[in-house]
Amino acid sequence: MKTYLATRQFWAGAVERAGRAATWTFVAALGVPGVGDAIGVDVRPLGWRDALTVAAGVALTSVAASVVAGKASGPSGSPSLVNDRPAEQTTPAPVTPLR
């Protein structure tokens, strides 16, 4: 019996989630030019090295969360706490036209 940590499906999902989280964090840490001025808040962006450091920390945290989610209550083989798999499709009953 394979453990969920030994499946390709689990790691593909975990890496995808970690990559998205790191990307969002990196972009946010760099700051978007003009956003602070537009909303009237003094936003000081990080340098790219600091932004990478923060993004790497978020990616590691995401992988750790996936490991915990897979063990805790997520669907079998998934790094998610919720059932993110689509439900099986059922064929609807035929519609009878009104006359």
Nutshell version of this structure?
The chain is an all-alpha fold. Helices cover 54% and strands 0% of the residues.
Strand content: under 5%
Radius of gyration: 21 Å
- Helical stretch tally: 3
Secondary structural class: mainly alpha
Largest sheet: none
Unreliable segments of 5+ consecutive residues: none
Q: Which percent range fits the helix content? A: 40-55%
Question: What is the element string, with H for helices and E for strands?
Answer: HHH
Overall spatial form: flat
Total E-strand runs: 0
What would the average pLDDT be, to the nearest integer? 79
Pfam families: Phage_r1t_holin (PF16945)
Protein name: Holin
Can you give a write-up of this model?
The mean pLDDT is 79. This protein has a domain at 4-72. With 99 residues, the protein is mostly helical. The protein is built from three helices and no strands. Helix 1 (8-30) packs antiparallel against helix 3 (48-72). The protein starts with 7 loop residues before the first helix and ends in a 27-residue tail after the last helix. InterPro entries: Holin_r1t. This is Holin. Residues 70-99 are annotated as: Disordered.
How would the blueprint of this fold be written?
Blueprint: H1 8-30, H2 35-39, H3 48-72
Helix pairs in contact: 1-3
